[in-house]
C-alpha cells in the first residue's frame, strides 16, 4: 500500500492505540499502512490487545483452556456432549435447560455473557 509521509508522530500513534483506537483507523489518520502502525507499536514496546477485542461486547478468559484442571476437563466434556461452535458467527453455544450449570460454566470462564 503506497502512502505518503506519516502525518502523526510515533508517540501520537502509541497514545491513540493505548486510548483504544484500532490500528486500521490510526493508519488512516496517519496516512500510512496498518503494518507501519504495528511496527511503531512494536518498536515502542506497546502491550497489544487480543485480536478482535475492540469488537467484543462481553469478556471471557481466553487463556482458560491453557492450564489443565478438573473443571476445564468437565467443561470440555460438557461442550463435546452439548456444545456447538458456529463458524459463521463465531459463537459457542450449549444446549442445556439447567440454567445453574450454564451459570457455573460462565463464572468458571470469567465471562459476563448473558444467558439466553
UniProtKB/TrEMBL annotation:
Residue ranges occupied by any Homing endonuclease LAGLIDADG domain in the UniProt entry: 72-107
Cross-referenced InterPro entries: Homing_endonucl, LAGLIDADG_dom
GO molecular function: endonuclease activity
Keywords associated with the record: Endonuclease, Hydrolase, Nuclease
Protein name, UniProt field: LAGLIDADG family homing endonuclease
Amino acid at each position: 500500500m503506497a502512502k505518503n509521509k506519516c502525518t502523526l508522530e510515533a508517540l501520537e500513534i502509541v497514545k491513540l492505540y493505548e486510548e483504544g483506537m484500532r490500528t486500521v483507523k490510526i493508519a488512516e489518520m496517519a496516512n500510512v499502512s496498518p503494518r507501519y502502525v504495528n511496527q511503531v507499536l512494536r518498536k515502542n514496546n506497546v502491550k497489544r490487545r487480543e485480536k478482535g477485542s475492540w469488537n467484543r461486547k462481553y469478556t471471557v478468559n481466553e487463556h482458560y483452556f491453557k492450564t489443565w484442571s478438573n473443571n476445564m476437563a468437565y467443561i470440555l466434556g460438557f461442550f463435546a456432549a452439548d456444545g456447538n461452535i458456529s463458524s459463521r458467527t463465531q459463537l459457542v453455544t450449549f444446549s442445556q435447560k439447567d440454567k445453574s450449570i450454564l451459570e457455573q460454566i460462565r463464572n468458571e470462564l470469567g465471562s459476563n455473557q448473558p444467558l439466553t
